[in-house]
Amino acid sequence: MGLLPVLCCLTAFSFAQDMPRLEKKDGRFALMVEGKPYLMLGAQINNSSSWESELPKVWPALDDMHVNTVEAPVYWETMEPEPGKFDFGTVDLLVNGAREHHLHLVLLWFGTWKNGQAHYVPEWVKSNPEKYPREISSYGKVLDVLSPNSESNLEADKHAFSALMRHVKQIDAAQHTVIMIQVENESGSIGAVRDFSAPAQKEFEGQVPTELTRALHKDSGTWSKVFGADADERFAAYSTARYIGEVARAGKAEYPLPMYCNVWITYPVAALENRDHPSPGQEYPSGGPQQGNIDIWKAAAPSIDILAPDFYSESRDLYHSVVAAYHRDDNALFIPETGRGANFGAYFFYALGHGAIGFSPFGVDYTGWWGGEHKVPESLSENYALFKPMATEVAQLNFEGKLQTAVEQKGTPRERLHFGDVDAIVSFGFPQRDGVMPPGTEDQHGRAMVAQLGPLEFLVTGFDASVSFGVAETSGAAPANEQLEILQADEGQYVNGNWQTSRIWNGDQTDRGLNFRGPNQSVVRIRLHKLPLYDNSVRGSK
Ligand code: DGJ
Q1: Residue of 344, 362, 367, 369 with the most ligand 1 atoms within 8 Å of its CB, for mutation
Q2: φ and ψ of 89, to 5 deg
Q3: pLDDT tens, 89-99?
Q4: How far apart are CA 340 and CA 370, in angstroms?
Q5: Ligand 1 test: best mutation among 182, 311, 337, most atoms within 8 Å of CB?
Q6: Residue (of 393, 403, 430) closest to 519 by Cα position
Q7: What is the pLDDT of residues 372-407, one digit of tens each?
Q8: What is the 201 CA–ligand 1 centroid distance (Å)?
């Protein structure tokens, strides 16, 4: 064998190895970028900001927010102004800008769906509903939604998306600025629970495809028989998932980046007598990957790697239930869009503690959309400033299952995190007086992260929290004759993968736990040791 074939193989091998990809180990996920777990500290720009005129007002906000990744839309209507004629100017602007600002990029494909409607499809699609059929409501209304039950719609989107992925490969396969692709945006239909056009109706009256009933462990039958009262919505979910799964599959055949779908989730209905059930197609786009449709989407769209909830509520209970719904053995947790308020800083920690590969508030730029103020979401910006230098280490620790977080809850100002025979005790709010519970903070923004580096070594950070360590509480059994003591607590930071200590914490900074007060920028690496709690030769003689 000559040298050339060997070199070719090696190149192909290293190319495949370095591709951004999703990896799973022991039930946990990592987004691998350049071969290492990556924690995406993201921000999404406003919808109409991927323009040459606007991007100069985008990059400074991203820099100010300390993000490492920008999510930005690519519009089908401008990318394919005439059938088969492509203009990748927007993609090139985004890729070049991201590189100049040392950011990674997630491209959002605004194709057939944008918030449950078809606003970004090209004019030649919009104006030709005979060729590109619309969804029709149960009472015959022609909707601003392309039918997911139409092959010509699917072919048109697939063709465009494949061209996009081919172009991304051409300009970025060697550099991997682009690390992930969002396929469509908050898919599903607004205005109807499903398509009632004649072809869709015919499909609905047929049998549920066997691969779906098999995957869901259901008996075969028509949609109404298999899904009862939910048949319309589940049919919409299958149709939408199959369509988007096909679009993603065609794109991956060109360039297989990780691909996800963001979700306009189901929120509870406003309390009012007899309103107990949010209505698909009215309160949220019907057929998207909402909580109740996840299993169908997983079965019908295997080329979509992640179903990722957009989360905009201030309700922490709802947030916890949404994280639980999407953090599954077959689904990595990723929050691709979220709000900007104080709660959201705590949400980042909560997601991280549930293995999140990334997090991203929406609408971060200085284009003036938020009333002209040049402000980035503060609670998230302070998180990102803290995590950016150690994002790789944090992602690695999370992938290995060594990281936990504590997030303050109303009425619970103290929480214990268990690391085998060591507990980290997190207390929220200051001042913390001896002998009484900590005060908590006014708006429950206290949050902390503890990651285990060795049997008795931890990496710790947080906001308005103190963290102390103790021998794990044992229930029932006699407590071991042991106590923990601090050997050294180093404040510092990772710099290019190496820990650098800036000072040693002691005295007031460690006496009642490691104190992370106020707008903190501190990360502490603490080493503990164990010693007996009692000297039994003395204690026994008393
Ligand atoms: C969710 C959508 O996905 C975004 O594109 C944007 O429209 C936001 N909602 C606005 O809050």
Answers
A1: 362
A2: -55, -45
A3: 999 999 999 99
A4: 11
A5: 337
A6: 430
A7: 777 888 889 999 999 999 999 999 999 999 999 999
A8: 31
